[in-house]
Specification:
Layout (H helix, E strand, L loop, with lengths): L9 H17 L1 H17 L12 E2 L4 E9 L2 E8 L6 E3 L4 E9 L16 E6 L3 E6 L5 E4 L6 E2 L4 E6 L2 E6 L16 E2 L5 E3 L3
Antiparallel strand pairs: 1-13, 2-3, 2-12, 3-11, 4-10, 5-6, 5-9, 6-7, 7-11, 8-10
Helix pairs in contact: 1-2
């Protein structure tokens, strides 16, 4: 059985596959190199199933917690995804999407403060927001949802191609004291609970 990969992976893998077939005619070594690059692209865009807990607010991304701060009376937690992490993003809670908004911006490394000015997509729900942030390598954000769509906790809501950051702006009643994770801790999208009860 084939492993699942993120939607749209063919836009990266197909050109490499074609180039590999052509390259091997002229140089087997070049063809092998291109084939390996295609395998790396497929591995990067892997999309494994997850066991979603019945309660709590779950991590929207795989990676390490890089941001914990309050802004406008709401708690924000950011998760930095490096190149080895799964880059498919998931809904921290169930709910109905109110809007999906793309904001152009820079492409600073996603683990530094300046990345707050990077290109991003805001997925707004009634009580919370997921922010997909492009990094220095990540140049494309692919939301899977649109306004009016209802999702369950842990559902796939999009992916970012190559390293980047995903933030969740929590519902108003969630405080720093409710957090189960700290800065620098590793989390798994759809499985790790950031907050126990919600």
């Amino acid at each position: 059985m084939c492993a699942r990969v993120a939607q749209g992976t063919s836009r990266y893998a197909a050109p490499l596959t074609l180039l590999g077939f052509v390259s091997v005619l002229f140089s087997p070594l070049s063809g092998l190199f291109v084939a390996l690059a295609g395998i790396v692209v497929l591995a990067f865009h892997r999309d494994p199933d997850r066991v979603v807990p019945d309660t709590g607010i779950v991590a929207p991304a795989d990676g390490r917690v890089s941001v914990i701060r309050e802004e406008d009376d709401r708690l924000r937690v950011g998760i930095f995804m490096n190149l080895t992490d799964v880059h498919v993003n998931r809904a921290p809670l169930g709910g109905t999407v109110e809007s999906v908004t793309h904001s152009p911006g820079a492409h600073w490394p996603a683990f530094i403060k300046e990345s707050d000015r990077n290109e991003k997509v805001h997925v707004e729900f009634e009580d919370y927001t997921v922010v997909q942030i492009a990094g220095a390598v990540a140049r494309r954000i692919y939301p899977y949802v649109e306004a009016g769509q209802t999702v369950e906790r842990g559902d796939r809501i999009g992916h970012i191609s190559f390293s980047s950051r995903v933030d969740v702006v929590f519902p108003e009643d969630v405080t720093r004291e409710d957090l189960l994770v700290g800065k620098g801790e590793s989390v798994t999208a759809g499985e790790t609970r950031l907050v126990a009860d919600h």
